[in-house]
Structures are given as structure tokens and as C-alpha cells.
């Protein structure tokens, strides 16, 4: 055995090289105006992927009506409070790490409220 050489053994930990992937994807939804809508995904990847929510290819920013969170079980959620007709569209969740990019999409339809007629 030769222990005097400058060669070193390189150990590669494959757990830290995993492209992003979805375990659970979003489903199409139809709601009535004013209802709360939650879209959720579960994912994996190493390093942990960065996650982006988009509506009709535009990034959704967190505001009073749009909230994003990660639950204790690793589910990522985007909630729309008090949905409006203008929220109708195609929603995409995009996940990215240094080993790749994946995305999934669903359609949201927000229908108008049913107006009750008045009899005089």
C-alpha cells in the first residue's frame, strides 16, 4: 500500500444533487366571487428549490389578497383571499435549483355571484 502519494479520495454525496420535482401538483378550480382559493404543491430537490407563483406568466407578489406559505408537512400554498373575476387565469408554480427547473399549472375560474331578484 502506498500512503505517501498526493492523491485524495473524493466522496460525492448525491443527496445534495437532486433536480427539482413535484410530488403533488395543483388542480383546476372554479369558485364564486368572494371565496378564498388555495393552490398547493409538494416538491423535492437538493438544494431546496426556489419557488415562484405566476398568473398568466406574471409573477404574483405577496399582498393583502395573495399570501404564500410553507406548511409543517412541506406543502407550499398560495392563497387568494376574496377571489375576484380578474383572478381568473392560468396559474403556474415554477421551482428552480442549480440542477434544473420544473413547473406545473392549473386553471382558475372565478364566477360572478348569483344576484337575488327583488319583487316590488
From TrEMBL:
Keywords: ATP-binding, Immunoglobulin domain, Nucleotide-binding, Repeat
Single GO molecular function: ATP binding
Signal peptide start and end residues: none
Ranges where the Ig-like domain occurs: 20-109
UniProt-listed SMART domains: IG (SM00409)
Protein family according to the UniProt entry: Belongs to the protein kinase superfamily. CAMK Ser/Thr protein kinase family.
Listed name of the protein: Ig-like domain-containing protein
Organism lineage string: Eukaryota, Metazoa, Chordata, Craniata, Vertebrata
Amino acid at each position: 500500500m502506498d500512503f505517501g502519494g498526493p492523491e485524495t479520495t473524493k466522496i460525492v454525496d448525491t443527496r445534495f444533487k437532486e433536480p427539482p420535482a413535484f410530488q403533488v401538483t395543483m388542480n383546476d378550480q372554479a369558485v364564486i366571487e368572494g371565496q378564498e382559493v388555495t393552490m398547493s404543491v409538494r416538491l423535492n430537490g437538493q438544494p431546496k428549490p426556489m419557488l415562484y407563483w405566476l398568473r398568466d406568466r406574471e409573477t404574483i407578489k405577496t399582498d393583502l389578497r395573495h399570501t404564500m406559505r410553507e406548511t409543517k408537512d412541506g406543502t407550499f400554498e398560495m392563497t387568494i383571499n376574496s377571489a375576484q373575476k380578474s383572478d381568473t387565469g392560468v396559474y403556474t408554480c415554477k421551482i428552480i435549483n442549480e440542477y434544473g427547473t420544473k413547473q406545473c399549472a392549473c386553471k382558475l375560474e372565478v364566477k360572478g355571484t348569483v344576484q337575488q331578484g327583488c319583487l316590488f
